[in-house]
Specification:
Layout lengths: L2 H4 L3 E2 L2 H5 L5 E15 L2 E8 L8 E4 L3 E8 L7 E4 L25 E7 L5 E7 L8 E7 L12 E10 L4 H9 L9 E4 L8 E2 L2 E2 L4 E4 L4 E8 L6 E5 L4 E6 L2 E8 L2 E3 L4 E7 L6 E8 L13 E8 L23 H8 L18 E13 L14 E7 L2 E3 L7 H6 L32 H4 L4 E3 L3 E3 L4 E8 L8 E5 L4 E8 L17 E3 L1 E4 L3 E8 L4 E7 L2 H6 L2 E6 L28
GO molecular function, one term: hydroquinone:oxygen oxidoreductase activity
Pfam families: Cu-oxidase, Cu-oxidase_2, Cu-oxidase_3
Cofactor: Cu cation
Amino acid sequence: MAATIFCAVVLAALAAAAGGEAAVVEHTFVVHEMNQTHLCNTTKIYVVNGQLPGPTIDVTDGDTVVVHVVNRLPHGLTIHWHGVRQIRSCWSDGASFVTECPIPPGGEHMYRFNVSGQVGTLWWHAHVTCLRATVAAFIIRPKGGRYPFSTPTKDVPIIIGEWWELDLVELDKRMHDGNFADNPLSATINGKLGDLNNCSGKPEESFVLDVVRGETYLLRIVNTALFSEYYFKVAGHTFTVVGADGYYLTPYKTDMVTVAPGEAIDVLMAADAPPAHYHMIALANQPPEPDPQIPGFDSRGLVRYAGSSHNNNGLPVLTPLMPSQHNTMPSYYFHNNLTGLAHPDRHRVPMHVDERLYFTLGLGSICRNGTKTCQRRRSRETIVVATMNNVSFRHPTNTSLLDWYYDGRTSGLYTEDLPDHSPHPYNYTDRTLIPPGPLEEALEPTFKATKLRRFRYNTSVEIIFQSTALLQSDSNPMHLHGYDFFVLAMGIGNYNPKTDPEKFNYHNPQLRNTVQVPRTGWAAVRFVTDNPGMWYLHCHFEFHIIMGMATAFIVENGPTAETSLPPPPPEFKRCGSNGLTQP
């Protein structure tokens, strides 16, 4: 493959850059298969331009991004620009079967969009099946390079992921068939498994961050994993959290970062320890039993000071003390302690609410044959599904929701009646309070359907996300495409509409595209529907997406051309009859 294909071409004139003018940043992404060997096994993986992680997109607030995607896989795919607002450019969101059909094998597609009003770390990933493991950082720098904190010496993406021995396409097929027995073998940091893993006694390669004492580093930590939230620490060092999901936060000091799938956390790390070697650890957490358990796994990297000896002067490398993988409360405290950085130009929290939604997030079971006549106690006749208000989302497979909506077709593919509250009054965060009788009766009526919600332009929406303890008690990282929302509050237990609104932070809440709804807890978010189009809402645990914890929001056009979704751009390819984009 020619070297030019592997390079990102950046079209930004030096004069324009010096003057702070917006640039056009252009990349070519060639998506293909390659083999990689870890833990004594060779596995087929899916990469962009031969890299894992893929190429970083590095732009400045106000720039236009153009990405040419060449699909050399034997199946279709799309690329999603996770966290980019896509103002009036829903056509470029890259959500498979929501905003577009997949790019066919051998096909090409061009994404073009503007980034404006966001600064910090986002990321991009494939949005078809488990190929989300094809990822990299998307960095948006402030105009003029001015940060609200001291400019770091260097910034370093820290991409936390997972290593799967199983082909990810096969993994997706198994999960769609209700088989969730497969697990990753290791965590990864920037594609490296770390020396806690070995093949026949030979340690795996670790990610190494070389630092100079007295300098400060901006770590851009992104959790791209399919299955787990992670705790991240560096021995002998502390962090100052300064941003998340493309927005600044009030500086918050901590010795551990918690990052859920879909989240991007920016932290400053001062290299102020005695020159030596220090381990960094990314540890996956999970709920305790009786929840289904997966093998514990982590990845270990290294912070290496300039001037330290190759063997660390013969001394042991300091390793951080990590919490128990079954203790999820550090995640709750970390996320609950973050606040937005007050700024005169910052959007204000809408104080009135036009529509209130209460979404319970849980699991249920349905008959494999699509009826209600199976024996639910016979596992071979049922399949476990994930739900929002007991509805498991049925993803389209031969056209996109945006295509259907934009063409004015009003029936046949979806309905617009996703319930705005749970059908059950029970306390589902405490298993002891579930009504007596078979669990499958308590889960009724769970069903699979393509149910959406429609909003008028400029509607103020409040959503209470409620995690439950039905069949499992996982947290739920909920991600909304095309929008950022204010995280007003979160809590443990059932949301109380009479007392919990007193906890809402209207002064300086976080502005996020992904909210980590606590295990057996709730989170309250609020936003205004100022971006017309079709926008996907889903949990960012891959198994929850496949199981149906998702929906889409239709946002109608506003009263003017500037508040309306424009026609698809010339480069956009509509869906063909085979469920792929047309040539």
